[in-house]
Amino acid sequence: MAGFTPLASLGSGAGFGGSGFGGKGLDLPALGSGGGGAVAELTGPQKVAIIVRLLLSEGAELPLTRLPDHLQAEITQEIGRMRSVNRATLEAVVQEFVDRVESIGLSFPGGLDGALSLLDGHLSPATSSRLRRMAGASGNSDPWERIAGLEADRLLPVLEEESTEIGAVLLSKLAVSKAADLLGRLPGDKARRIAYAVSLTGNVDPGTVRRIGLSLASQLDAQPAKAFDTGPVERVGAILNYAAATTRDEVLTGLDEVDAGFAEQVRRAIFTFTNIPVRIDARDIPKVIRNVDQAVLVTALAGARDTDLAAAEFILANMSQRMAASLRDEMANLGKVKDKDAEAAMATVVTAIREMEAAGEIFLVAGDED
Length: 370
Description:
The protein is an all-alpha fold and 370 residues long. Helices cover 64% and strands 0% of the residues. The protein folds into 4 domains: 7-102, no CATH class; 142-222, Flagellar motor switch protein FliG, alpha-alpha superhelical domain (Annexin V, domain 1, Orthogonal Bundle); 228-270, Single alpha-helices involved in coiled-coils or other helix-helix interfaces (Up-down Bundle), CATH 1.20.5; 275-370, Annexin V, domain 1 (Orthogonal Bundle). Helix 3 (44-57) crosses helix 4 and helix 6 packs antiparallel against helix 7. It starts with 6 loop residues before the first helix and ends in a 12-residue tail after the last helix.
């Protein structure tokens, strides 16, 4: 029975005998004389109390906090009123409970908040945001479950804007790893003040914590849905990664004239063949060349000109001497490479690197901030 925790059956209100939670508890030293007749004497709440007591005695973890407060209270009160049941009654109650659970064909999460969690990723951002505001307004859901599931990037702006006291409560309700991540992103002075404020949250009552959670959840859900998953710097950088070199240079020159700061951020986001020496760890070069067709790699290396020459030499210098000598021979036999063919080959090498980065096989070194 240790793993048998069908919470929905415990919170059905009518119990599983149909008597409901309104029945009186039998204030007797022992309940029932055995068999089905004994079960008939029990109310629905008493049967639920027996199942809860049995599961807890077997070491099961029952998430009773997911039940409404009044049901948690009634289960607790019923357990407090009861004394003992004999083995025959216990077995009959368990069998009735198991029969009822096994007859269930499909269960639903219960409540709008549960439905939103189930459909997460399947609804449009606008619809999801609107429904979450409705769920928060209903007052039945736990706002902290929603907040704790959000990414740190989404929570950081709220933490930066809110007061020290609210920030302390927010960090206290998050997983330790996520709280540490957020604290590390804050300016030193604010991080210290919030860390100290956490030590003062011991006497905050649950009602206040819930109201804070509802307010924060409302703020987060009120944020407009984003049409793009990435920021403008990343999008422009990704486009220019695949643009021809002349086009890329012209666009960056134009951005310098309009917004030099934005242009510099885009330059840092761009990754081209030229950037290989400063963005790729020398130890990852063997991995890269294994993912690029050798004929394409020879074309890219042989076609390197001007600023790309350093990247070609970096690649050759970080592989085995035997392979480097073989590639140099092939480069010499290939002769002069057309600029168009060289650029296409370099783009293929860059694409392979990007795919390896996305798969977590390699990591790009952060660009120079200076």
